[in-house]
Design goal:
alpha+beta; five-stranded mixed β-sheet; four-stranded antiparallel β-sheet
């Protein structure tokens, strides 16, 4: 517990300083080096492909799971989708795959489901425990036939912040991890709008900003270049570390 709290506090301190550090020429090299060390340490300590994030019981559920960041999507298309209960929402699957296509909500619910009770740690310093349900990302990628050249998965989202489309990414280690799921339920109910309805990425071994909400697409890619500013995510393009392991 002490190690986890230290990492959350360290992450918060790092982000708090980004606005100033990001103005210096050496920021990029410093962040790249620190991130590589952080990620390498996790892999070396065994926090790699197999070990799991801690899971809890229903007695541990937080009474309220707050929203953070975008609390809705301010578009007519999203409001119309919400009004119809997201019945026609689609998740596109593409990029370096043999079988590109779209999955409906019914398609996603028809896949084998994983339910997991995990702790969400926000870089701002708060935590909450929730029960998430959805298909494993690995099953979706297996069906799509990810090609050997793919090194990362890009997650497309419906929300737009300050004129930039929200997106996130992870490497293939985290993409195929058993606890990485595309959640459509929180605590046994349809995912609330504030928590990313109708679909949210759960990548349990990383901080909350990696858990992209309002998912519209999954794309297998060889490189993060050409997406946003090339740093792997909306917040990463603004100074956050790409690998946010806890």
């Amino acid at each position: 517990m002490q190690r986890r709290n230290f990492l959350v506090a360290a992450g918060a301190a790092f982000v708090a300083g980004c606005s100033e550090i990001g103005k210096t020429n050496w920021f990029g090299k410093l962040v790249d080096g620190a991130e590589g060390w952080h990620r390498g340490l996790h892999r070396a300590l065994g926090v790699g492909r197999i070990p799991m994030a801690p899971e809890y019981s229903r007695a541990d559920l937080s009474p309220y799971f707050r929203g953070n960041g975008s609390l809705t999507v301010d578009t007519d298309a999203y409001r119309a989708a919400e009004a119809e209960g997201f019945a026609n929402w689609r998740l596109a699957v593409g990029g370096l795959v043999d079988n590109p296509g779209e999955l409906t909500m019914d398609d996603l619910r028809a896949l084998p489901q994983r339910t997991q009770i995990t702790r969400h740690d926000c870089v701002e310093g708060w935590s909450a425990i929730g029960e998430w349900t959805g298909p494993q990302l690995s099953r979706i990628l297996e069906t799509a036939g990810v090609q050997p050249e793919a090194n990362f998965i890009i997650f497309r989202c419906a929300d737009n912040l300050n004129g930039a489309d929200y997106y996130e990414s992870c490497d293939m280690d985290d993409a195929i991890h058993p606890q990485t799921i595309i959640a459509h339920q929180l605590n046994g109910e349809a995912l609330p709008v504030r928590n990313g309805a109708p679909l949210r990425l759960r990548i349990e071994r990383q901080l909350g900003y990696k858990h992209a909400k309002y998912l519209t697409g999954i794309e297998a890619v060889a490189s993060l270049d050409g997406y946003g500013q090339g740093n792997g995510g909306y917040w990463e393009d603004r100074g956050y570390q790409w690998y946010a392991g806890i």
